């Protein structure tokens, strides 16, 4: 499920040989004159930087023409880094094809659903399925790998960059050919495809594979299963590119671990990272805070899910920002303390490396207003002082390196198939936001001080959790329904919501009444959905308010208890929240969107049967996020103050690895983080 080489994390050895946390940034020396490089290495040392991602957008500099190579500058940078004790996560440089390539081969350029060419001028203008692109990219990878194999600065390979950030959906003829091949592998026969796609509808029956196209601009809603399969295919096509580069790298440098940076973030849904995680030697993620009321909850959610897809083994935070970004409508700088807190929240969730985009803020180009470790103002700046401060903290946290995350008792399931399918067009509502629903449950758990794991819906051993929350688990293949039933029958407590269990893996409705595949397990039946128009809400008799969705529920099993009823709306007096209790386990259904506030009110009733309570003093619950990492001898408690007020944590003891001294009881200043080491109890 996760890395095939879990131990292949590129740890920097400390002076005594034990691993340290890694610290660094994307480094783009080609944007600067030679004289700046020496200063860069000096400042990196001052900041405690020990790794940089190098050469990510260097293709045009490394190969200025098809048969011309220029490695001199990179040789020099690699040597300088090595002399400075800094290692390189060396990019394969294939993320942005050079102008000579796209001029000679415009057939590598992606095409949109409306048939427009995506022209060069920015970056990532390549088709994942282009054989021409693949040939040129792999030639570059081979040349680079051969040149730097054995270079002492080489710590890891960084395949491409954020695969799919801009080019996940390509509708070109290459994509059409590759899509057909992918469909043949999935369905084997046209009959099976016609069945799965439900092509009896609207006269879509295919009689030849060549008739099948990507879901290009159509007169009305394109076939839903075609759309869902195209999403799966597009994720797979990029994964295939990752594999192709990785195979060249493994052939030439079998001992150098390979990764690529994922983007586990709400706005990025094209790549099924739970499925990709097994393809890399260690998982790496990029994350950017989008300011808003739940922004740090979302950071925590992303880091937590990254850990989930990494099988709770250490992962690499490849990019985040020291302060403002350049790509939001308004780019607000971070407040004092946020740089360190954001970084350490990732470490709390298992990151053993903290890196930023980028080392030195660009003077030119589209990202010149994006913050960096060395800002335009230079090292005499608040940002650089915060950067060096974080370097010291990460050095003090060296004992944490290599530890795993201690499993929580509660899990929130996250599922790319359900994300993709639940948000498709021609549904009961176009307002459903899968990620937002999952995040609201997570926010509510944070507010109650409940430690939670966010884990992929497939590939997780549910039995390890006392409570499993599956928000909008829309796609439920028969095997998953069985697994969930088995979990509840074995004493597990399952909570799920509206629009769950509705379709199988082909996006076909489970007939007989909703929630389809989960109907018997939940002991309820719904004949019709009741989505709510914008601005409408319904009151429940437990003092919460529902929006977006309601269900007309009929209770069908004798062991179902109604936890809350609708008080207003079309379904007034009918059940809104139900719980079935077969044996020791339970299966709860929440039929409307309660939002983070409403869920915070409801959750205690759902946590109670599972016996789950907060682990911190109750005054701190909600104000402080607790995360635990552990190794054979110790537990490491990460305590993150989520508020702008000091928070007292009486009674907590341990060696303080980071944060304020705890002699007279720990008091966490606003937005600060403490890390306590405690001996692990004997089991
Ligand atoms: C990432 C990307 C970086 C940089 C950064 C800016 O998506 O990998 O190269 O563009 O965003 O936030």
Describe the secondary-structure layout.
Layout: E1 12-13, E2 19-20, E3 22-27, H1 34-47, E4 51-54, H2 59-62, H3 72-83, E5 87-91, H4 99-104, H5 131-148, E6 154-158, H6 173-187, H7 190-197, H8 224-252, E7 258-259, E8 261-262, H9 273-276, E9 284-286, H10 295-309, E10 315-319, H11 338-348, E11 351-356, H12 382-396, E12 404-405, E13 410-414, H13 416-422, H14 434-447, E14 452-456, E15 467-470, H15 478-489, E16 493-497, H16 519-522, E17 524-529, E18 538-539, E19 545-546, E20 551-555, E21 560-565, E22 575-580, E23 586-590, H17 595-607, E24 624-630, E25 634-641, E26 647-649, E27 655-658, E28 666-668, E29 673-679
Parallel strand pairs: 3-4, 3-11, 4-5, 5-6, 6-7, 8-9, 9-10, 10-11, 13-14, 13-15, 15-16, 16-23
Antiparallel strand pairs: 1-2, 12-24, 17-20, 18-19, 21-22, 22-23, 24-25, 25-29, 26-28, 27-29
Helix pairs in contact: 5-8, 6-8, 10-11, 14-17
Description:
It contains 17 helices and 29 strands. Helix content is 29%, strand content 19%. The protein has 3 domains: 12-168 and 238-403, Glycosidases (TIM Barrel), CATH 3.20.20; 410-610, Rossmann fold (3-Layer(aba) Sandwich), CATH 3.40.50; 619-679, Golgi alpha-mannosidase II (Immunoglobulin-like, Sandwich). α10 (295-309) runs parallel beside α11 and α14 packs across α17 (595-607). The chain starts with 11 loop residues before the first strand and ends with a strand. It is of the alpha/beta class and 683 residues long. Beta-D-galactopyranose (GAL) is lined by residues 161-162, 165, 286, 288, 319, 325, 357, 367, 370.
